[in-house]
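debug: dumping io for the single-chain case to check the tokenizer round-trip. Nothing else runs in this session.
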Amino acid sequence: MTHANAPLNIEGRRRLVERCRSRPIAHVAAEAGVSRACLSKWKNRYDTYGEAGLQDRSSVPHSSPTQTSPEVVERIEQLRRDNKWSARRIALELANQGVQISERTVGRWLARLGINHRRFLDPDGSINRRPSQRIVARYPGHMVHLDVKKAGRIPDGGGWRAHGRDSEQARTAQRAKTAGAKGGYVYLHSAVDGFSRLAYTEPLPDEKAATTVAFFSRARAFFAAHGIHRIVRVVTDNGANYRAAVFVRSVTSGALRHQRTKPYTPRHNGKVERYQRILAEELLYARTWSSEAERTRAIAVWNVHYNYHRPHTTAGNRPPASRLPTSVTNVMASNT
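debug: decoded output
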């Protein structure tokens, strides 16, 4: 949000225009860091319209000669509701009536009208589309989202990303796996607070129920250190580790509610899903790792970076920890 004395808000424009009464426009524009044409525009508008001329104007064009007329839009909607026709059929029908309009334009108008999918229309033509409901946490600890992401284990010396799939190092690592060396996956268990987006991640050897229970216990301690002492709802998918009785007991024993998402609907757990995508893009695959131990250490460092340094849109372009009353470290993005 801009403050009242920002250089080019309404008050700033008025000040620049006042300076132009006694000084050349080019000199005032150079001092303000704007172009001469920009300052001339504001001065001309002020001379013509007064204070009202300094207001922002809409970027919508004054006229759109090729815009579809309201009558044609009404006819498109009528044909869709009455006959359930597709965009192509509607375009052909309008062409027969002397209205030249492309199939793509008809499709765009059907989307704007909210009737682009057949399932949105009842047999009588009325709309049965229900607006999607956002899952919003109202306060810290209201909803904590859990999920697990599998990542291939990196052999010592680096894997095929570092040396290539046909390299000697890759073949040596493959022979070591065949001989019994530890390979497979590392399971990244993550917990995200739905209100602040504070996140906690641990790389663990499996995703069994006992491992998940232990991780959840440590995650609760992590959240408590940041002032989230009470968790109301725990949201997970339908993985075997989250359906296990031992995990359900560990959640409900603390007077918590365990909510599992609808099958094959990952958006219901979208906050942690999005976090895992950020983790993959900004850390896991952002560079080449020489060993699994190196990446494990980097995950711990990145977790601090995400919570205390990286700006988040939900927090008003501030780190997630800024939305919480308690901080473990006082380093914020402005100090880096």
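debug: round-trip ok. The first helix runs from residue 10 to 19.
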